[in-house]
Amino acid sequence: MLATARGVQGRYQGWRRSLPRPEADEAHPFRRLLGGERWAALPAAVRERFRRRIGPEGCLTYVGEVTECRMSRLGWLLAQLARMIGSPLPLHRDTGVPACVTVTEDRAGGGQFWTRQYGRRAGFPQVIYSAKRFTGPTGLEEYLGLGVGIALGLTVEGGVLSFVSDHIFWRLGRLRLRLPCWLSPRLTVAHIDCGHGRFVFTLDLTHPLAGRLVRQVAVFADPETDGDAT
Q1: Which of 78, 86, 193, 226 could form a disulfide with 145 if both were Cys (CB 3.0 to 4.6 A apart)?
Q2: CB count, 10 Å around CB of 14?
Q3: Cβ count near 219 (within 10 Å)
Q4: What does pTM read for this prediction?
Q5: Tens-digit pLDDT profile for residues 90-112
C-alpha cells in the first residue's frame, strides 16, 4: 500500500487543474449573437466570464448562495410537474442555502453543460442539469430533458445580460414541435454584475394570464485562479 501511495504521489505531484482561457471577442458565439455594440455595452467582467473557453478537461465552478425564492401555487405545481424533465425549476422556497454552478464543455453538441446545485434546509440538495448549444432559430437553445428545450434570445439593458425565452419546444429525432404561446410561460434569466468579482443570477418565470410563477435570486463569486495552472 505504501509503495502504491508513493507511486500515485509521484505520478500526480505536478498535476494542475485546467483553467478556462478567454477567447478573442470576435471568435466567441455570445459576441456574435449580441453584435459588437451590445457586447461592448456589457461590463468588462461580464464579457470576461462569457468568453471563457472551458476545453475538454476544464471545469468552471461558481459558488454562492440563494438569497430569494418565491413561487405562486401554480408555480409550485409547475415545478413539481417539471420533475419529469429533470426538475429545471426550484422545488422549494429555501433561502440562505448554498448554491453552486458548474460549467463543462459539451463536445458533441458544441456548447456547454450546466450543472446547478441548490442546498435545502432538509434533505439532499436539488441538482439541475441542462445543455446550452449555439443552434436553432434564435442561435441559442437550452436542452432540459426528454427532448424538451427552450429557444433563447439575448438582450442587454443597463449593462445587464438577460436570457429570454422565445419559445419552448419538444424534439424527437427530426420532429420538432413548438408549444403554443398561450401555454408557454416566459423565462428570463439575468446576469447582473456587482463588481469585485461578484454577480447575481435572477430567474423569473411568468405567464401572460397567471402572472409571475417563480422568482429565484442567487449571488455568486468568480472562482479563484491558479496561476500555475495550464
Answers
A1: 86
A2: 7
A3: 17
A4: 0.88
A5: 999 999 999 999 999 888 777 89
